[in-house]
Amino acid sequence: MKKDEATALDTKSTAPAEVSRRDLVTKFGVIGATALAATLAGVSLSACASASGATSSSSILKRRYGMVIDVRKCIGCRGCVLACKVENKTPPGVNYNVVLEQAFTVRPNDKPVFQTRPCFHCEKPSCVDVCPASATFKRESDGIVAIDYDRCIGCRYCLTACPYGARTFDFGENYPHTSEGSPFAAVPSPEYGQYRERSAHKSPIGNARKCTFCEHLQDDNGAYDKKAGRWPACARTCPGHAIVFGDLNDPESYPSRLLNERQAIRLKDDMGTEPNVYYLI
Amino acid sequence: MYVYDEKIGRRKFLKVSAGAAALVGATNLTGCGSANASESQIAANAEGEKKWGREAGKWIPSCCNMCGGQSGILCHVVDGVVTGIEPNSWNPNNYSNISSDFFNGYTEEYGTKDCGALCARGNAGIAQLYDPDRVKKPLKRSNPDKSPGADPKWVEISIEQAVDEIASKMKTLRDKDEAHKLLWISEDHSFTHIQGDFLKLYGSPNYGMHSNLCDVSRKASFKCVMGHDRPLADFKHAKYILLFGWNPLSSIKWVYLPRIVTEGMANGAKLTVVDPYMSHTAAKATEWVSIRPGTDGALALALANVIIREELYDKEFVSKWSVGFEEYAEYVKTKTPEWAEEITSISARTIERIAKELATSGPAIIDTWSGPGQHSNAVQGGRAIACLAALVNGFDRPGTMIVPNKGGNSHQHVYPDEKADAMLKNPRFDELDKFPLGHGSGVYTRYFENILKGDHPYEAKMMMCVFQNPVMSVPASDLVQKAIAKLETFVVVDTMMSETALLADYVIPGTTYFERYDFNTHWVTWPVLGLRQPVVDPLFGQPTEYEFVTMLGRKLGLKEASGNDFFNVGPLSGQRIESLKEWYEDYLSKEIKNGKPGITLAELKELPGAVWVDKKGTEYEKYMKTVADSAIANAWFDGDPAADGTNVYDKPKAEGGKLIGVVVDGKPRVGFGTKSKKVEFVSSWLADKVDANGNRIDSLPVYSPREWQPTEEYPLYFINWKESSHTHSRTQNNALLLEIKPDNPLILHPETAAKYGVKEGSLVEVESKYGKFRQKVSLSKRMHREVIGLQHGFGHIAFGKTAKGRGASDSVLRPLKSDPLSGMALHKEACVKIRRV
After folding, report:
1. pLDDT for residue B17 is more than 50
2. Is A272 helix (H, G, I), strand (E, B) or coil?
3. Subunit contact B262:A184, Cβ cutoff 8 A
4. Which letter, b or e, does each residue of B652-680 get, where b requires 16 or more Cβ atoms within 10 Å of its Cβ?
5. Does B250 sit within 8 Å of A76, measured CB to CB?
6. How far is B202 from chain A (nearest CA, A)?
7. Rounded to a whole number, what is the largest CA-CA distance in chain A?
8. What is the pLDDT of residues A178-204, one digit of tens each?
9. Pick from A77, A179, A195: which is nearest to B250 by CB?
10. Of B367, B571, B605, B645, which has the fewest beta carbons less than 10 angstroms from its beta carbon?
């Protein structure tokens, strides 16, 4: 593949806004290709199926959203952190992604490595298993790990169960510009398409919260559209274009191609969580 | 006509037609959430979606102004509230500074191929707009005491009263033929033209802008060597990038920088960053070269020494397109790597290697910014750096430093009346003419220095300060405060109650970039003009900055020489326009109608992303262009018209002819923008001038040590820098940005810390011979062992509840001083001692 093509963002395959469900069957119906891509990505197809529970004839349609993060292009600016906060209207202390900045002793002069870290939407999410209220679950259709705030009892088991620290707790704080009296205070979070008004003692205050891959930006068919701005906010804003988002089940998606062409790792892979977020090295 | 598609929240431009409408109807994009309702336990809220979703309200394209980078943004506005900001993919500022890169895959419907980007600050704009600590009403001081810490005892007044009283003070000055005693300083990316017009019609030559706190020394250096004051680096196509004290990946001057730098590196470019501190840019670089502050010029000369010694320079370019090479080569002969090692602390072996890598792996970018640029030896050092670029043919070719075409809006002339004209002839208060390489933005330090002097060059009476916080941003806070307190009248226009505003007699509430118009140009290599437009009305009913100026102009009845009632008559329409907003729209319309775009404001608004982009794009090697035939017809040659080296004048030299070209490869070519039309290793014209201190100027890019050197008592170098988490000293009350950068700890190398018994988290006092502050320590080997420093901008004593008392300000450490060639404020030059407290 030519270099130019590798950097091109193929939104079409992950963004079939004008594509009917039937077209999708035709497009992704070649199981062999899908399996090949999945193998190359280091994840077997059977693992996907078992992790997501029930299977049906429509399972070949399933998407598996994920990210491939090019560490070389992450400059540690934290644009992603703030784009997420503004998109999801998260309060102080609730951060769906952070930028890890690590200096390794083996690197000279404390030279840091920057890694943006969203929720990894693991194939085998340890946060899901521990939830006593079945409030958090992995969606069959696209692999997104979601939280039903109405069921969440705020016990925070999931916060400790996540090996990546991807979940935070909403203690009910507000920023000065989101506090009462500010015109902006009335603007609700679009999370899960719920547009909940933020008020004391009401969810998601008192709930665990986490990255949703901005699933509220999907269309009725569960598709995103980068060019229309309906794309996870962190990936949409990234100045280094380091965050590559898409359907890892689609062998032609940009992240799948990157996983094929480049070397990638997952964090704490030995935990058996099978993250859907990869880091290029 | 293009419309912005508001119906479906798709940020796509559709040509309005029945077909397009049908398409919108057929594509159901209303839903949120999962494709399969049965598996999801989360019910969406259709009503909330209808009220607040992407289909609700409006998407308005505009430009950011969190910093000077002016990225394109799309603002989602619902019910008069800005609910979201996203990158504008039609604006080159969000993508690339080179047109071939920008247009590759560009469509009118969606913009650039990989979409635009926005940095952390751009995303945090909402917290700036809705900051509850904003100044909301015009305020008048009732306590004449302006000593530090004095309560101004503000009284709220109406804007009419404020305009009446301020205009009346201005009128008094003007009536006494003392209009020049009004000084005016302003931020330099917004509403500057109208302020300049006002001052011209009023009669004061004293208009200063922010640039002299930023990069005027860089401007001077490049102007001398290659004839343009703002070359832009084509990072994407370079193979070797050598940066002296500039930080495109962290300070993110333009949001396209991270993309083009990292792509350039992915394409194989080597990035070497010279900086006493391993900035984020240096952290991403192939190589970080730790240097003693202010010695970059010495390094540049030593690199040149090796390149010339090894004959690795581009001989063809140097022989055809430069002047002074022999003299320069002779000068750098003694500037060996060993010589530079002593000065810079960089090993001679490293210098030798970098020189060879640089000269053998072009195209190469060699660039510099405020690191070396805010030192007393900045201009000559910058010239040495630019000369290095000349050696490797590093100008105006792909992958090098490009001369941008600045075509955009055109500032229309105003013609002052006789009275104003007479007062405009007064010398500038900042004595800009004494700085031989000074910049139109003036010399802020001289303003305050001369106010303190009292009567030199005359007594200043009044100052307008628009969106500037000199108490925090000009070296020597204490002196700046004293100077301001001496003025009879001091007016501040700002969104925040800054440290400077606390000294004002009047504070006028300013607007954020969501509330006003501006044009944005000049940040890519070809003509582009982005529109900033009001996406909401000013929150407190306050006038915008340009409306405030217009109100003053009307109140004073300022007219042009022709009698034209300037501030009442639309500059384009020629009709009387009462509405302040409409008058300014007409003003802007004239600037683009008569400028490069040739369209009206209304037409600009309808362009995709509200940005006009010249389709012709980036041009390279413009110096090779031949002089126009029409000019050649009357031209005078000082030698054989076909012989290389002959100069071309518009008329005989003896009759005062102006150099318009130079013969190269047998043809008269327009050449570079320098005095000689060639790249200048030696600028002989400088030898006739003296600097602001009265010293002669070397025509070679000589290295001389910066003035302020460490001593036994003050043994450490002190530096500061910018990061993209904040802009200067104006975002530290932004709660969102404080999430990612809440403080600016003092960075020390662990070995340095050990010497002073300082540990991680220790509180220390940093003291120079001018002032001191306290701050907590953070240890990092990313800092040069002889240097300590911090991110600039924190340490507010006012500005808002969140900013106040957070972090430390280093402005107290330095004297009120600029470099004597360009007038650049010396923000980086200080020596200190530290003590654990």
Report:
1. no
2. coil
3. no
4. eeeeebebbbbbbeebbbbbbebbbbbbb
5. yes
6. 39
7. 58
8. 999 999 999 999 999 999 999 988 999
9. A77
10. B645
Q: What are phi and psi of B535, to 5 degrees?
A: -100, -20
A residues 105-144 lying closer than 8 A (beta carbon) to B: 108-112, 114, 137, 139-142
CB contact residues (below 8 A), chain B span 476-495, against chain A = none
CATH of the domain at A48: 3.30.70.20
The 8 Å CB, 24+ separation contacts for B226-229 are B226/B386, B226/B389, B226/B390, B226/B395, B226/B401, B226/B403, B226/B672, B226/B673, B226/B674, B226/B679, B226/B680, B227/B403, B227/B672, B227/B673, B227/B674, B227/B677, B227/B679, B228/B403, B228/B404, B228/B672, B228/B673, B229/B439
Mean pLDDT, rounded, of chain B: 94
What pLDDT digit, counting tens, does each position of A23-75 carry? 333 333 333 333 333 333 333 333 333 333 333 444 445 899 999 999 999 99
Q: Which residues of B358-376 are buried (b: 16+ CB within 10 A; e: fewer)?
A: bbeebbbbbbbbbbbbbbb
A92 vs B: CB within 8 A = yes
CA angle A89, A94, A97 (to 5 degrees): 90
For chain B, count helices (H), then strands (E).
27, 33
C-alpha span between A272 and B353 (Å, rounded): 47
Provide the 10 A C-beta neighbour count for residue B435.
26
Contacts of A146 in chain B (CB under 8 A): 40, 42
Beta bridge partners of B466: B186, B493
Domain range for residue A142?
3-280
Torsion angle (degrees, nearest 10) of CA B512, B725, A236, B20: 10
Give residue-wise pLDDT tens across range B25-42: 333 333 333 333 334 568
Chain A residues within 8 A of B32 when measuring between CB atoms: 190, 192-193, 215-218
Q: Does the CB of B693 have a partner CB in chain A at under 8 Å?
A: no
Strand partners, B763: B776
The answer to whether the CB atoms of A77 and B249 lie below 8 A apart is yes
The predicted-structure confidence for B139-195, as pLDDT tens digits, reads as follows: 999 999 999 999 999 999 999 999 999 999 999 999 999 999 999 999 988 899 999
Task: Tell me which residue of B508, B516, B443, B451 sits closest to B484, measured CA to CA.
Answer: B451
Give B194's Cβ-side CA count (13 Å radius): 29
Other C-beta atoms lying within 10 Å of the C-beta of residue B188: 18
Q: A230 to chain B: which residues are within 8 Å by CB?
A: 9-10, 29, 54
| Per-residue confidence (pLDDT) for residue B690, from 0 to 100 | 97
The 10s digit of each residue's pLDDT in B305-314 is 999 999 999 9
Closest CA of chain A from B130, distance in Å: 5
Q: Tell me, what's the pLDDT at B40?
A: 52
Domains parsed from chain B with CATH numbers? 2-129 (2.20.25.90), 139-214+409-605 (3.40.50.740), 232-402 (3.40.228.10), 622-688 (no CATH), 716-836 (2.40.40.20)
* B612 DSSP β-pair partners: B529
Whole-structure pTM value = 0.92
Is the ipTM here above 0.90? Answer: yes
> SS3 of A49, please?
helix
Domain count for chain A, please give it: 1
**Which member of A82, A179, A220 has the closest CB to residue B120?**
A82
> Cα separation of B531 and B52, whole Å?
26
Residue B831 confidence (pLDDT) above 60? yes
CB contact under 8 A, B131 and A137: no
